[in-house]
TrEMBL record:
<dbReference type="Pfam" id="PF03486">
    <property type="entry name" value="HI0933_like"/>
</dbReference>
<feature type="domain" description="RsdA/BaiN/AoA(So)-like insert">
    <location>
        <begin position="187"/>
        <end position="336"/>
    </location>
</feature>
<dbReference type="GO" id="GO:0016491">
    <property type="term" value="F:oxidoreductase activity"/>
</dbReference>
<dbReference type="InterPro" id="IPR004792">
    <property type="entry name" value="BaiN-like"/>
</dbReference>
<keyword id="KW-0274">FAD</keyword>
<feature type="domain" description="RsdA/BaiN/AoA(So)-like Rossmann fold-like">
    <location>
        <begin position="4"/>
        <end position="388"/>
    </location>
</feature>
<dbReference type="InterPro" id="IPR057661">
    <property type="entry name" value="RsdA/BaiN/AoA(So)_Rossmann"/>
</dbReference>
<protein>
    <submittedName>
        <fullName>NAD(P)/FAD-dependent oxidoreductase</fullName>
        <ecNumber>1.14.13.-</ecNumber>
    </submittedName>
</protein>
<dbReference type="InterPro" id="IPR023166">
    <property type="entry name" value="BaiN-like_dom_sf"/>
</dbReference>
<keyword id="KW-0285">Flavoprotein</keyword>
<dbReference type="InterPro" id="IPR036188">
    <property type="entry name" value="FAD/NAD-bd_sf"/>
</dbReference>
<dbReference type="Pfam" id="PF22780">
    <property type="entry name" value="HI0933_like_1st"/>
</dbReference>
<keyword id="KW-0560">Oxidoreductase</keyword>
<dbReference type="InterPro" id="IPR055178">
    <property type="entry name" value="RsdA/BaiN/AoA(So)-like_dom"/>
</dbReference>
Length: 391
């Protein structure tokens, strides 16, 4: 079998790249070891795929080589993907500013990609494992479970390491190493935190309580909802900050973002001196959390009896609640992989390996990781198109 292009990975980036190259007249084969294409698309966004973010730009991405993503993101913008989705009649909603989700189901996005691949003449082969990839003359040769395949170029689009049960593997990273490329340190990101000892018990007792917080770690701050879980802390604020958190770091959580807790407590003491601290807390926080805080700190009473020192102690608990996570839930539940194939050995225009244009890497396998909110798919689409146009 001979193809102009073999794409390894029938996920978001691989399918996007394949259809782009197919429309350009290339004979394209997409191979995947999974029994279904686009499994992560299907499970994304709680089953409704947050397929892009209208405000997506380079500032929404982490990488050791931050300028790498600029070119592709500039050339294929969120509006371009929305235009394709519109053409296929997919209904969507803007759940949070800029974040577009399918109104019905993630299946719609996979349907769009598979239909476009079909129209572009792309062949998709599932349940095929790749044993070896090597150079062969001017092109590349793949040894697979279905025999040898020759290709003018191989595009590695096998994604990151999260959720191994969905087909994730380190194959792309291993392939990069085989061809002499670097792979930056990888870790689970956009992932809930676990807590230990008494903090775990406290979170467990509050499981299901959610509130908007501003969380800070390593100079990054995210203001989004936080959710207490049976294992620890989750919700968008925690997923976002997990991308910068390192083991041993404390999180600083402002439970009353936008409010100076000391000023607010002092003015409540002036205006309503007979009000109890617990009543004030319950007016500003979810009731279960307010109650728990009073129990944890064994401090309640009428505001009039609170000294400035007591108010300052409460203000620091509310504005700067310090929590040291035990860890994260890891690859089992992480949405993405931080780190990956070092982009310094690739062209940011074509995604080819410097000195070996027959080999390319796109999507999440690269050391380009988006924030929560549709940015990771936007990167998959943009890198897939940039590469596909050059094949
Ligand atoms: P992707 O993982 O999509 O595809 C890789 C493909 O390669 C898979 O089909 C896999 O089977 C295949 N493969 C792996 N190893 C192979 C091997 N050895 N041989 C052959 N094939 C192999 N992002 C976002 O923007 N909005 C969202 O709503 C969400 N939601 C979300 C929820 C959950 C639960 C997860 C886990 C992730 C998200 N994401 C997200 C992240 C998003 O899913 C992710 O960034 C993209 O799918 C990455 O696209 P890729 O094509 O690079 O990899």
């Amino acid at each position: 079998m001979t193809y102009d292009v073999v794409v390894i990975g029938a996920g978001a980036a691989g399918l996007m790249c394949a259809m782009t190259a197919g429309y350009a007249g290339r004979r394209v084969l997409v191979v995947d070891h999974a029994n279904k294409a686009g499994k992560k698309i299907l499970m994304s966004g709680g089953g409704r795929c947050n397929f892009t973010n209208l405000a997506s730009g380079p500032a929404n991405f982490y990488s050791d080589n931050p300028a790498f993503c600029i070119s592709a993101l500039k050339r294929y913008r969120p509006e371009h993907f929305v235009e394709m989705v519109d053409r296929h009649g997919v209904e969507y909603v803007e759940k949070a500013p800029g974040q577009l989700f399918c109104a019905e189901s993630s299946k719609e996005i996979l349907r769009v990609l598979m239909t476009e691949c079909d129209w572009a003449g792309v062949t998709v082969r599932l349940k095929m494992s790749i044993e070896r990839v090597e150079r062969a003359g001017e092109g590349m040769r793949l040894a697979t479970s279905a025999g040898c395949i020759d290709a003018g170029a191989v595009v590695v689009a096998c994604g990151g390491l999260s959720i191994p049960t969905m087909g994730a593997s380190g194959f792309g990273h291993d392939l990069a190493r085989q061809f002499g490329l670097g792979v930056t340190d990888t870790r689970a990101a956009l992932v809930p935190f676990t807590l230990s000892s008494h903090w775990k018990a406290r979170a467990e007792a509050l499981a299901g309580v959610s509130l908007e917080v501003a969380v800070t770690c390593r100079g990054r701050c995210y203001r989004e909802p936080m959710l207490f879980t049976h294992r620890g802390l989750s919700g968008p604020a925690m997923l976002q900050i997990s991308s910068v958190w390192q083991p041993g770091d404390f999180l600083s959580i402002d439970l009353l973002p936008g409010l100076d807790a000391f000023e607010a407590l002092a003015s409540a003491r002036r205006e309503t001196p007979r009000r109890r601290l617990s009543t004030w807390l319950a007016e500003h926080l979810p009731k279960r959390l307010a109650q728990a805080l009073v129990e944890w700190h064994g401090d309640d009473g009428v505001l009039a009896e609170c000294s400035n020192e007591r108010l300052a102690a409460w203000a620091s608990r509310l504005d700067d609640w310090r929590v040291k996570p035990a860890g994260t839930e890891g690859w089992r539940t992480a949405e993405v992989t931080m780190g990956g194939v070092d982009t310094r050995a690739l062209s940011s225009k074509t995604f080819e390996v410097t000195g070996l244009p027959q080999l390319r890497f796109i999507g999440e396998v690269l050391d380009v990781t988006g924030e929560l909110g549709g940015h990771n798919f936007q990167w998959a689409w943009a890198s897939g198109v940039a590469c596909g146009l050059d094949l």
